[in-house]
Amino acid sequence: MHFSPSRLVIGIAIFIAISFLYTVNTISARDPTSVFFNPRKGYAPRYSATRREQAQNFIAAYNPANVVKAGEQKKRKLCVGIPSFKREGAQYLPDAVGSLLEGLTPEERQEIYFIVFLPHSNPELHPAYHQAWLAGLTDQVVTYGFGMDRMQYIRDMEVRDKFDEKGLFDYGYLMDKCVEQFTPYIALFEDDTVAMDGWYHRTLAAIHEAEQQAALHHAQPDFLYLRLFYTEEFLGWNAEDWSTYLFNSLAIALVPTLILLALRRTHPTTALSLALTTRRTFATMYAVLALLILVYFALGRITVHPLPTGVHLMPQFGCCSQAFVFPNAKASELVAYFKERHVGYMDVLTEDFANERQELRFAVTPSLVQHVGRRSSKGDDYGPMSKWGMSVAEKIWSFGFERFDWVKLRREHEVVARLRREGAEGGERRG
Fold first, then answer.
1. For all residues of the chain together, what is the average pLDDT?
2. pTM score, two decimals?
3. Do 45 and 372 form a contact (C-beta atoms < 8 A)?
């Protein structure tokens, strides 16, 4: 068959077009930083729907005879705390508790001290307060333990809907309860979240990696927090970095110019050199190059430059307060800081604390937790940040979380558990 350059060009064009359409429909459509983002696809609960079903089945099958709780104090590695408010409409607490416990091996469960905090002056208002599974599955159900004067202060905040005051007070109160357990680390989750199958062993691995990075790359003995959840919506082409984007675009544009000038200089009289260095060729080439650069940015930062899998620094643009892990000592310092500031939102004040003290902030990718709530506890369901007919709370979403495959996660968890058992048995034999 006779070779035809035109056929080659057509073939390359078709390949690029197919690749572009595939990227747009399968990746960029779920990338909130892309102009091709499709909210119907991006916010579709794929894995989270499966995980919620697993959590609900776990709670429904609650049997006191089969429950494993925290082991002796010296073997505990993590205190898990969840503050849970009564919400109008759907109640998410069973899904949160179920997803954190479902699939855990007995050994893993014994390393966790599990607290649920019901921050109501009258805890009986909470739908789960009298349900047997709550006290049966957790290690401690915490309610306010104050005298009359302090309780009046709590009731006053409830009546006045002081979200920025009471929310901070409650978060510090729960964090303090976990600090008292003396576990090396504290993980706090909001009650409208679900955790992936295997969240615990991945969290321990991420903590170890964060410790290593803090020591080896930053010469610091610890870090402030490890973020188990963030939304990619704020990790796009941020205006603060416009100069970097411009410099990189100009650098890329300069490369073909240098190549063609070098070609003209080294082979000035060849037909190819003369054809490629005409004004028309330059104009066409840069028109195409400009289009490709625009397409690159249009595809979205998460599509073309995704965050690497694993643990990495996230000192800014990390949102929100759905799931954090704190070293115990840092948690104590944060509790004191919250008391000092008195009013404010936990996530904002945590960033203030970090900026003031130049603390390290890490995140794990992909997120190990998804936010499934549909109403904000701060009362701003529809505001400047809402769009696509969605509330502010609905848009707090981990797009990477939904790409998990529950079958692969279950197999991974089983392999990790088996290797752990074999390691423990080998240690006992050597002992």
1. 87
2. 0.86
3. yes
